[in-house]
Specification:
Length: 304
C-alpha cells in the first residue's frame, strides 16, 4: 500500500489574517471550506498550482488561547522558483524568523507560530508521484543552457520511463531510444543540424528517438508522444530539456540529420530518426507563466 499525503491541518485564531498571510507569503488561496450551520467552526482548504498538497486551516469560535502547531520543532517546507525574490517579499512582510545562509534556506513564521521552511526549487525535491500535470505544463520550458552538474540517475530513469510508458497506435511501439552520455559523442551530435542543436555540446545527456516505419504507419505520431512525455517529465523533475527536431532537417556537413545521426550512433538502416531530447541540469529555475486565456479562442463547440 502506498499512502499519499494530501493535506495538513493547522489551527488558527484569526482565519482572515491567516488566509491573507498564506496568500501573500506563498501564493496559496482558498480551494474550499466546510463547517456546521451554527458557525462554531470552519475548515478552509488552501493550495496553489505548484503542487497538489493543501493546508487545512481550522478556526474554532470562542478560542482565545494560542494553538501549538509545532512551532520550530515540527515545520512544513516549501520550495520557491526564485529564493531571492521570495526572501524580499518575506522580509517586507516581517515574517522571517530564522536564516541558514550556509545551507541556502530560511524559515518564516505564520500568525499562529507555525514555522515554514523556504527552500530553492531543486531537482532532488521535484520527483513525486501524482504530480499536477497542468502545473508541470505551466512550468515546462525549452532549456538550452545547463549548469554542468550531472543529472541524478534516478531522475534520468524517470524521464526514460515516461517515454517507455507512452501510448502508441495499436500498441506496436515502433520506437527505440538511444541514451547518449559520452561527452565526445554529445559534442559531435551538436553538429547534427545546421542550427538548433548546439546545446548538445554542453548537455549531460541526450535521448535519440528513432523508429521502424515498417512496424507502424503512425511511427511519427508515436515518436512525438514519446518525446512529449519525456520533455514533460524532465520539466516536472527539475531537469532542463530541449526538443531537437531531426526528421526533415539537415546537418552542418550537408547530409540529412537522419544520415548524420545514423552513422554516428550505428543505427540500423531500417530506422528513421524523429528527434533528440537534450538534457541537463538548468542554470536557473524556470519561471511559471500565466495561462494565456486568448488560447481559448482555439476551442470550438460542436462545429468549427
Amino acid at each position: 500500500m502506498n499512502g499519499k499525503a494530501i493535506h495538513r491541518c493547522l489551527h488558527v485564531l484569526d482565519l482572515d489574517r491567516s488566509l491573507d498571510f498564506y496568500e501573500r507569503a506563498l501564493g496559496m488561496t482558498e480551494i474550499r471550506r466546510m463547517g456546521p450551520e451554527d458557525g462554531s467552526w470552519t475548515n478552509v482548504f488552501i493550495g496553489n498550482d505548484a503542487s497538489g498538497f493543501q493546508l487545512e486551516l481550522t478556526w474554532n469560535r470562542g478560542r482565545t488561547e494560542p494553538y501549538d502547531n509545532g512551532g520550530r520543532d515540527s515545520h512544513l517546507a516549501f520550495t520557491v522558483p526564485d529564493l531571492d525574490a521570495a526572501h524580499a517579499i518575506h522580509e517586507q512582510m516581517g515574517c522571517i524568523c530564522h536564516e541558514n545562509a550556509k545551507m541556502g534556506l530560511y524559515f518564516i513564521e505564520d500568525p499562529d507560530g507555525c514555522w515554514l521552511e523556504i527552500l530553492p526549487r531543486k531537482a532532488e525535491f521535484a520527483p513525486q508521484g501524482g504530480v499536477d500535470v497542468l502545473a508541470a505544463l505551466d512550468e515546462r520550458r525549452s532549456v538550452r543552457h545547463y549548469s554542468g552538474k550531472p543529472i541524478p540517475s534516478e531522475l534520468l530513469e524517470r524521464i526514460i520511463r515516461a517515454g517507455l510508458c507512452s501510448a502508441s497506435g495499436r500498441g506496436r511501439r515502433p520506437w527505440e531510444l538511444i541514451v547518449v552520455r559520452d561527452r565526445e559523442t554529445l559534442e559531435k551530435l551538436a553538429t547534427c543540424r545546421e542550427a538548433g542543436a548546439a546545446m548538445l555540446a554542453d548537455a549531460d545527456a541526450a535521448i535519440v528517438v528513432v523508429a521502424d516505419p515498417e512496424v507502424s504507419d503512425t511511427w511519427i505520431e508515436d515518436c512525438a508522444i514519446v518525446m512529449a512525455n519525456m520533455h514533460l517529465e524532465a520539466s516536472a523533475s527539475g531537469v532542463g530539456s530541449c526538443w531537437i527536431q531531426g526528421r526533415m532537417r539537415q546537418a552542418a556537413d550537408g547530409r540529412s540529420t537522419g544520415d548524420f545521426v545514423a552513422e554516428l550512433l550505428e543505427i540500423p538502416k531500417a530506422y528513421e530518426l524523429e528527434s533528440i531530447l537534450s538534457l541537463g541540469m538548468p542554470q536557473e529555475a524556470a519561471v511559471t507563466r500565466e495561462f494565456d486565456e486568448g488560447l481559448r479562442a482555439k476551442v470550438h463547440a460542436e462545429r468549427f
